[in-house]
Amino acid sequence: MATKLELSAPKQVRFTQVDIKEPGENEIALEAVLSAVSHGTELSLYRGTSPFAHRSFDMEKRLFIDGGDSFPQAMGYEWVGRVVGVGGGVRIFQKGDLLHLPLPHAEWHLCSMDQFTAWGVRAPLPDTVGPESACFLSLMSIALQAVHDARIISGDRAAIFGMGVLGLLTVKLVRLSGADRIFAVEPDPSRRALALEWGADSSLHPDEKPAERIRDESPGADIAIDFSGRDSALHQAVRSLRAGGLCVAAGFYQGGAGNLLLGEEWLHNRITMAASSRGWGNAHRCHPRWDRARLHEWAVELLARKQISPESLIAEFRDYTEAPEVYAELDTAPNRSLKTVFRYQTASGAAI
Fold first, then answer.
1. CA angle, 280 as apex, 277 and 281 as ends, to 5°?
2. Considering the domain boundaries, does residue 290 fall inside one?
3. Percentage of the chain with pLDDT > 70?
4. How many independent structural domains does the chain possess?
5. Largest Cα–Cα distance in the chain?
6. Which whole number is the average pLDDT over 32-36?
7. Contact in structure between 169 and 143 (CB atoms under 8 Å)
8. What DSSP designation does 24 have?
């Protein structure tokens, strides 16, 4: 038997038992090594503030609809494991391969090759990419999607709001994309300092009137990317833009948007706003040249080349069995850890 983690109700995390089965003809069995907590998305689920807490997303209609059983819910989408069994029809993976998959926290997973196709995972991780850096691959693909949605060209000025892991990765990716100047906006002082280390030219507190400060230093940003998940920050992102600028809304927003004043700069400066989402069947805006598989493969390549080394952002490793306590701690002090990663035990009981 193995265990998986699930949310049975808001702020109620539990372990449930799953049977370990031999893989079928086109299936792969994997044992967990590490899985990372997505502090924004998972805490919104944990607190019951996510739209998924009370509604479900109808993939056919592309609408959130009322009704349905919202719980239990799986938690997590940043899972790294090793192959421990392959079915007879599997050719591209073998025992011992290290893989990153967008799967929830669990000791063990059984996956079909059809799932790998949907995820865009077509090869094991190279030896140059270890588990600690691999457990950022979903977030790297999300940040990369947002940067692509921003359509940055060499010489652009960029304003990035929210210096969590996604914001910091975005700073690095925007710099690699040829931005001339990068403004980072974040309330936490330690994260503002990290933004400068990761490539931002200026690091501003939201109370410092960032839109005015950005306009004092330049005619305004050409593009703004918001990963804060707050409508107040999204409004400041819009305000920071020069006329005709582009704002990419990439945070996991909850509730209304009373602070997003669309009758002000958004309207009068003719700002374009684009939602950025890699999942839920959304095609890349440059499809078919880019798709989910290519995003994943380029994120892996950036890690392999050491152009991005996100493992330094891990603030703490915790044992997977401590998960209920970890979520309770993060709920009361969300900024105490930039990135929390769960460690697992092997089937033999030895820590990995």
1. 100
2. no
3. 97
4. 2
5. 64
6. 97
7. yes
8. -
178 with 253, same domain? yes
Residue 338, both tokens: 């930039």
Domain boundaries, position 11: 2-135+315-343
Name 130's Cβ contacts closer than 8 Å, sequence gap at least 6: 311
Mean pLDDT value of segment 163-188? 97
How far are the Cα atoms of 55, 71, 150, 189, 233 from residue 19, in angstroms, in the given order? 30, 21, 44, 46, 45
Evaluate if residue 249 carries a pLDDT over 80: yes
Q: Could you tell me how many residues make up the chain?
A: 352
- Residue at 291 is within a domain: no
Among residues 171, 163, 129, 139, which one has the least CA distance to residue 304? 129
Q: Among 227, 248, 275, identify where a domain stops.
A: 275
Q: Do 47 and 160 belong to one domain?
A: no
Residue 166 burial class via C-beta count within 10 angstroms: exposed 0-12, middle 13-18, buried 19 and up: buried
Rounded CA separation 236/112 (Å): 44
Flag whether pLDDT at 350 surpasses 80: no
Tell me if 81 sits within 8 A of 33, measured CB to CB: yes
Q: How many CA atoms, within 13 angstroms, populate the side-chain half-sphere of residue 273?
A: 17
What integer best gives the mean pLDDT of the chain? 93
pTM above 0.90, yes or no: yes
Task: Please state the φ and ψ torsions of residue 93, each to the nearest 5 degrees.
Answer: -125, 150
> pLDDT tens-digit profile of 45-98?
999 888 877 788 888 888 888 876 678 899 999 999 999 999 998 999 999 999
* Residue where a domain terminates, one of 219, 244, 275: 275
In a domain, 286, yes or no: no
- Tokens 């947002």 map to which residue? 146
100 and 153 share one domain: no
